[in-house]
Amino acid sequence: MAEQPERTTELGTGAARAAVAFDPLARVWLTEAEVGSSRPDLAYVPRLDGSLRVDLGSLADDGDDFGHIVHHPPGSVLRTGSVDDIAAMIRFCDAHHIEVAARGQGHATFGQAQVAGGLVIETEPLSRIGPVGEREVTVGAGAVWSAVVKETLRHGLTPPVFTDYLELSVGGTLSVGGLGGQARLFGAQVDNVIALEVVTGAGEVVSCSPTRRPDLFRAVLAGLGQCAVIVSATLRLISAPATVRRYQLSYSDLETFLDDQRRLAETGPFTYVEGTAEQDENGAYTSFVIEAVAYGPPAGSTGTVPDEDVAEAEDVAEDVAEALRGLGYDGSGPIVAEALGYFDFLNRLASGVADLKNAGYWTWAHPWLNLVLPGDRAAELARTLLDGIAGQDVGPGGVVLLYPLVRRRLHTPLLRVPDDPVPSLMAVLWTLDPADPAAISARTAANRAAFETVRAAGGTQYPVGAVPMTAADWRGQYGKEWEEFAAAKRRYDPHGLLAPGQHIFTA
Ligand SMILES: Cc1cc2nc3c(=O)[nH]c(=O)nc-3n(C[C@H](O)[C@H](O)[C@H](O)COP(=O)(O)OP(=O)(O)OC[C@H]3O[C@@H](n4cnc5c(N)ncnc54)[C@H](O)[C@@H]3O)c2cc1C
């Protein structure tokens, strides 16, 4: 592991302070005032379009994330002004053995975008979107998905797959996979990328795609920031529906719920299928809800041809009735159906998130657990895990998600899912009081135990949560992909600078 610089000795408080030089011996960043007259013993920061921050506020912000569990302040923060800035600073860090992590929206939960004493590259300023093409759009890695879809919808188009929450950066979700209810039909977000522009760990700006530097393309998508920093992505677009119709189906039997999810995932009129497990008044998980969403006809667009991908979804009313007839949801409970505008559906979490922010819960700890269960063991594993957390309060806004993926739609090698036709994503999204660190530690330890249980049954973790992992665990997680991933790491990040907070190639 590269030796890390210590924090600059004299940190400002609130005011933005820019570093102009690095002292390789003392391993501190220095501002202009600290440098004084020209000194030959210092390494001067290259000319930047953005700036290199060393003020305490910037370091504290990027030494934290949505998890609020791990706190490793960097030594400096690049407020990116251009792709050239990123390339120049990675080369600079390479020369001085300073570790580097890209940061999008900082919504990782366990320090994944942090780098103790190193350089954090904030990608947020790389937020350019478009112009929107007939079937694709190129966007900056720092653009958030809400902004991307707002722009593409002006052309009647949409990316096919969305995370439940839209205020995540494109670079951030493409680094992990990007899963949502539409993955059953379209795969993950990483399966809908046409090309990438990246800066490697050697500071080289490279364009890659399935046919151009395909090894790099494969190593970056769902590659947890290990081989390169994504600076822009060309995304596949499909015709957007104007409206959707959302159904909620209640179950009291876990196996029936999972069987029906599997059925809806493999075929049928619902573009989007997710689900939740719910606690009863005794804290036991005894009820389950499928959320199934049928897309309406495409919105009027600017002369684009009809889309074969959504042709299946046109005029679906009859298909929906047929699909619902064959399901085993509780006859006693109502089927809740509602029509929504397409964007309102995608953005459905926004008002709840605003409430959580207003109530102060957004800054609570989020020791999330995200696992992918093999479909043939999903009922047994989900029951074990749910019984294990029965009676425990998942916290304000906390939720247990359980929904199907379809293996044949997932083509990105580094997005690791069990070898099963319909695995299930299970996510326990805890919100815990930060004033109780013992409870948070106990939760991450329990997450680890849950991961081991699922791994022993052939499952994987979806690496966005708070699960302590060793290098050996990662090797197991990547399985047959490990050798190619490790080779790409050696080739594109030869000095092991990038994204050490994932602990994949470092201790
Ligand atoms: C409220 C909420 C809801 C979520 N819902 C979903 C969901 O429905 N589906 C889903 O799949 N995920 C979901 N996630 C998880 C989310 O997709 C990941 O945590 C994602 O990485 C966050 O994006 P970010 O921009 O905040 O990335 P960051 O937290 O900033 O970074 C995460 C990792 O990616 C790396 N990285 C970031 N940008 C780049 C880049 N440009 N190039 C290379 N590496 C980079 C970082 O170094 C770090 O290792 C959710 C998270 C939250 C907080």
UniProtKB/TrEMBL annotation:
Residues spanning the membrane: none
A single GO molecular function term of this UniProt record: cytokinin dehydrogenase activity
PROSITE patterns: FAD_PCMH, OX2_COVAL_FAD
Annotated InterPro entries: Cytok_DH_C_sf, Cytokinin_DH_FAD/cytokin-bd, FAD-bd_PCMH, FAD-bd_PCMH-like_sf, FAD-bd_PCMH_sub1, FAD-bd_PCMH_sub2, FAD-linked_Oxase-like_C, FAD-linked_Oxidoreductases_BP
Cofactor(s), names only, from the UniProt record: FAD
UniProt xrefs under Gene3D superfamilies: 3.30.465.10, FAD-linked oxidases, C-terminal domain, Uridine Diphospho-n-acetylenolpyruvylglucosamine Reductase, domain 2
Similarity field: Belongs to the oxygen-dependent FAD-linked oxidoreductase family.
Full protein name: FAD-binding protein
Species of origin: Streptomyces radicis
